[in-house]
Amino acid sequence: MIVGILGGGQLAKMMAQEAKKMGFKVAILDPQEEPPAKGVSDYHILGSFKDEKAIRKLAEISDVLTYDIEHINVQALKELEKEGVQIYPSPRVLEIIQDKLVQMQVMKEAGIPVPRFIKADKDELVDKALEFGFPLVQKTRREGYDGKGVAVIRDKSELAKLIPADSMLQEFVNIEKEIAVMVARDQEGNTVAYPVVEMTFNEANILDMLIAPARIEEEIAEEAKRIAIKAVKALDGVGIFGVEMFLTKDGEVYLNEIAPRPHNSGHYTIEACLTSQFEQHIRAITGLPLGSSELLIPAVMFNLLGEGNGKPKVIGMKEALKFPGVYVHIYGKSVVKPLRKMGHVTVVNRNLEKALEIAHKVKKVIKVVGDA
Amino acid sequence: MIVGILGGGQLAKMMAQEAKKMGFKVAILDPQEEPPAKGVSDYHILGSFKDEKAIRKLAEISDVLTYDIEHINVQALKELEKEGVQIYPSPRVLEIIQDKLVQMQVMKEAGIPVPRFIKADKDELVDKALEFGFPLVQKTRREGYDGKGVAVIRDKSELAKLIPADSMLQEFVNIEKEIAVMVARDQEGNTVAYPVVEMTFNEANILDMLIAPARIEEEIAEEAKRIAIKAVKALDGVGIFGVEMFLTKDGEVYLNEIAPRPHNSGHYTIEACLTSQFEQHIRAITGLPLGSSELLIPAVMFNLLGEGNGKPKVIGMKEALKFPGVYVHIYGKSVVKPLRKMGHVTVVNRNLEKALEIAHKVKKVIKVVGDA
């Protein structure tokens, strides 16, 4: 069995490692000469995940296709699926998720709590904003990622901050915490939810510290898991999904958005859970039963964001590993860019607060910097 | 940093996966076209681990060398070490371990309890056997592996079973249990011992079920760990070591033999311990601090031994994964041979006896067979 992955980034790398463990071969499609997944997979097709020819080449040598990024050529995948190629999650899911407005509409129709929203095309943004009321959050329908394509408009005076693109305008929610749940669904429709985790974000709106399990009441955690599973079922998705949610100051849980793939907020599962999100994804897309998502030990995860530019150099790895329960993942990207995800660190400890304390210390000592 | 591994088998594969996780590159030296480690490493030098030229080629592109098998060219490695190449564990360790007689002598001198033994050269086997007394165990000094090179001589009438090779004759110990401890030692001399595990063997003397933790008294477990750590220190070894021991019917613990590498009896650490034996080995040989060996959940491991010959086919994987806590590793060897290690299965469960029960069921459903 050959697993074909559109994309060869860190998510593809970690998927590939689990696939190889289970004895599958792995083929990746990536435009870079040396993507992170290259050194852990069997075949590398050099090409864009938007290029239909390249995607077809990947499909020809693979028994099943998946992807590690949303911004790919859905039409090409839909064509292939019609021709009988197995693709998980289905391109239909990807199509829904690529358009944030459609994603919200589908979730709302499924009876999943989402913040109030309206459609606002590029040419009617100001009128719609005034009609919708402030404060509001603008999300462009497409290509948003890690905070890109999102604008917070507090009042009329900030209308100039509107991004000129077809968008969805969303009610500004008073957020107590941002939480997330990884949900796996197999080809028979069985689902497994991971523990609810809690996220803190930095100025650039990139994940800062991920805390597992989330420090919230049990009932709220159960509610969040119910919503996450319902959302994945509503999509009829197969594979692993990262479901991001808001916990409001009045204890309401709203769905924020869904990633149809392994997710940054699930990296902690490699060390802390019985079955990692990556093995779970490989099991689901290859038609195997899901594993247990049980958390064996509390964990805190943070990303190693690039500093500077050039060839990557890891600084402070030895010092970092002197702390107990520290596990370092370096993705092997060939070039550093400021804020680029170059790796991540997971800290496990029976005492969650202790893990958090260690994580903050480790974050000060380990860095991935450019040599230029 | 590039980690060079002599050998590209399953141990090299699992080492490589941890090295890649941590952002290192991996080069392997293996005579096969498609060894298990190939698909998860960056460079493959096609050649024998006994061929000095090939070993030198590997050393040239690597920053540190290690190996996944004992039967390699020690003289070549000693030469390279003299020239300043970093090799862990040191060839000196390998040299001691390659000769079972010398290994026992070194351990005895270090004050480690070993069964009574004498040297017996090929031409004096019968006389020495008669002098030593029965029952006895003959172990050839070199090339013994998975039960090869071992003969049990119960009395005079069985002298014909003696293997014609320079050997060590060892007292036949009344074994209650065969136990083992993985010990990691870093470049600063710090050691970490894993839990004591218990092994059952099949007729061919290949590991059948590995049980972690061993079902033995706490004091005996502590004694076994002390012996294992002492043995690795006596070798001045750096890396991970598999220390096999006998627990006698009168509660004595004797050292049996040492493997200077990740060991079959340590595979359970991937799922059940905080730091796997493979990550621990990579940390040690790259000069990093060791991780915790804490057991998070009891585990049982068994090997998937090949049945028949030809191209491998995995049967019953789906059925196997329907059982809770089951993790399947398939090594990706290109050819099946009877009793060849094609993969392994780890079963974890909060209840050890339950894990054992599930392991026996799973062993009946999953097989790796040849298509010829």
TrEMBL record, chains A, B:
Coiled coil: none
Record EC number: 6.3.4.18
Keywords: ATP-binding, Decarboxylase, Ligase, Lyase, Magnesium, Nucleotide-binding, Purine biosynthesis
GO molecular function: 5-(carboxyamino)imidazole ribonucleotide synthase activity; ATP binding; metal ion binding; phosphoribosylaminoimidazole carboxylase activity
EC main group: ligase
Pathway the protein acts in: Purine metabolism; IMP biosynthesis via de novo pathway; 5-amino-1-(5-phospho-D-ribosyl)imidazole-4-carboxylate from 5-amino-1-(5-phospho-D-ribosyl)imidazole (N5-CAIR route): step 1/2
Catalytic activity: 5-amino-1-(5-phospho-beta-D-ribosyl)imidazole + hydrogencarbonate + ATP = 5-carboxyamino-1-(5-phospho-D-ribosyl)imidazole + ADP + phosphate + 2 H(+)
Residues reported to bind ATP: 100, 139, 170-173, 178, 256-257
Record-level GO BP terms: 'de novo' IMP biosynthetic process
Superkingdom of source: Archaea
Residues in ATP-grasp domain copies: 104-286
Cellular component GO terms, alphabetical: cytosol
Known partners and oligomeric status: Homodimer.
Family classification: Belongs to the PurK/PurT family.
Function: Catalyzes the ATP-dependent conversion of 5-aminoimidazole ribonucleotide (AIR) and HCO(3)(-) to N5-carboxyaminoimidazole ribonucleotide (N5-CAIR). Catalyzes the ATP-dependent conversion of 5-aminoimidazole ribonucleotide (AIR) and HCO(3)- to N5-carboxyaminoimidazole ribonucleotide (N5-CAIR).
Annotated PANTHER family: PHOSPHORIBOSYLAMINOIMIDAZOLE CARBOXYLASE, PURINE BIOSYNTHESIS PROTEIN 6/7, PUR6/7
Protein name: N5-carboxyaminoimidazole ribonucleotide synthase
Protein species of origin: Pyrococcus furiosus (strain ATCC 43587 / DSM 3638 / JCM 8422 / Vc1)
